[in-house]
Amino acid sequence: MPNQSILFFINEPGAANVIEPLIEKILLVQNTQIKIVVSRFVRKRFEKYFKDIIDDNIFFSSKHLELKQFKLIISGASFPPEKEIRLWKEAKNNNIPSIAILDQWMHYRERFCLPGKKNALHLPSIIGIMDDFGKKEMLDGGFPENILKLSGHPYLESIVSSSINHSQKNNAFTNILFLAEPRHLGKALGYNEHSILEYLIRSIQDVYADQTVRLTCKLHPRHEADVFDCYKNEFKNIDLIINTDGEMKSLILENDIITGMSSVSLIEAALIQKPIISIQIGLNTTDPFLFSRANIHPAARCYNDLTAQFTNITLGKHHLDWKIPAGLSTKFHDFIIQKFLT
Question: Is residue 168 part of a domain?
């Protein structure tokens, strides 16, 4: 078998979650070379595999991308997607197949359109979509069926297969995690991480009036470290902790209630039976969170919803049962290897 080279581009931690297991499998394929282009948000994660990691800003600074040596291009599907779209376009111009693997059930068109040009889809050769629900939504959104391939979500599948259940009983639920997302940088939803955090703090004060609560705000890699410093030392019964680089799985396990907007880590938490609250007060467009959009678990759309969900959790009335289909990612990885590398 001749030597064959694959280029990976990974721009976000979410994309890393679904692409890293594929890289590990391809590393075992004989006569296959891997080059990897990464952003600063995920560089450290891949240094254990590769010494010659390519910085994305350097790679994309060229007038024409150096792609002719590659047999296959694999990327995530970021939001916004300018770099991925350029990569797919130049791959097509060089007759190189490209694969984009999604990691979230939201903003499908925005991941394949240039900003302000939502009517024009820019597509790779194949799109990996997590499950049938996501595939149906993409078809409803105008994506061609022939390029959609079920890809699973290896990170979430691994949580299910570990059989870990950390549900709490007889718990005061006073350790709360807030998953901050940089909504101020992207699509206008009617809220952002600042407005949601303010509602969260207010509801904690109301529901936990006589208790001290530890509230940990986990920042997204795109956040500046001081983004929430203005809230420190402001509330008597809230011990606010700003976490910039904690490992997500550990943070979820250490806390009693996991809150956020539409982070995939809310789904991760639900899979191990942690109580979750998707806070979307002010939402004025399509709901970005899988569970509320699919009628699995409602988002808190107003302040009364939020306090009611907190109260129900503290009373032990929280239940959510959802499992991602098992084995889809393995089938998808086998498909890629058999189609392109054997």
Answer: no
